[in-house]
Each structure stands twice: as C-alpha cells, then as structure tokens.
Write a structure and sequence with these properties.
- The protein is an all-beta fold and 115 residues long.
- It contains no helices and eleven strands.
- Strand 7 (67-72) and strand 8 (77-82) form a beta hairpin.
- The chain is globular.
- The termini are far apart.
- The mean pLDDT is 96.
C-alpha cells in the first residue's frame, strides 16, 4: 500500500510561487512514477507533471518552464515547485503514484491564485 499526503497549497498572488509537497508512506519500493494532476470544480482532471524513477520529467504545455517536479529520496517526498503563477493555475492539485499497475492518490491541496 502507498499513502500520499499533499500539502503546501494556499492563496498566492499572480506571479508568485508555491511549492507543493507529496509525502509518501507505506511501500515506496516499486513506484515507477509520480504524477501531478489538477482539477477545477466541474471540469475534468488535467495532467500537470510527471517524474519517473529514472529521472525523466514531462510537463504539460500549460506549465512548462514554470513548474518543476523533484524528489527528496531520503524523505520519500515529491515536490512540485510552481513559479510565475497565473490565475488559470487555480485548482486542487493531486499527486498520484504509479506502482506496479496501480495508482494511488492523495487527498489534494487547494491552490488559489488571485489578486
């Protein structure tokens, strides 16, 4: 089992920065990739970023150049660094672990970008 807890969301002004954390516990070995998604009320979930266990990263065009996903191996924590935030980035952000054919989701953390 993998348990994920997102944190770090909040209110930030346009152009500001936030770093989201995804703390993993349980059976960490076997996680192939950690993905970040976001969802706005009433809309479909949107892919944001991916970090595979070989270090490969991939970002949605909408966040490329502004967001960076990293991992602290010792702390079993993944991060999503968000810079130059826009109002369009407002959403609930989720991390999801891909482990041996199963996906594990955190509870999500709200990010609100507003003046």
């Amino acid at each position: 089992q993998v348990q994920l807890v997102e944190s770090g969301g909040g209110l930030v002004q346009p152009g500001g920065s936030l770093t989201l954390s995804c703390a993993a516990s349980g059976t960490i070995v076997g996680i192939n990739a950690m993905n970040w998604y976001r969802q706005v009320q009433g809309k479909q979930r949107e892919f944001v970023a991916m970090l595979s266990n070989d270090g490969t990263t991939f970002y949605a065009d909408s966040v490329k150049g502004r967001f960076t996903t990293t991992r602290d191996d010792d702390a079993n924590t993944w991060y999503l660094e968000m810079n130059s935030l826009k109002t369009e980035d407002t959403a609930v952000y989720y991390c999801t672990a891909d482990r041996r054919g199963r996906n594990y989701w955190g509870q999500g953390t709200q990010v609100t970008v507003s003046s």
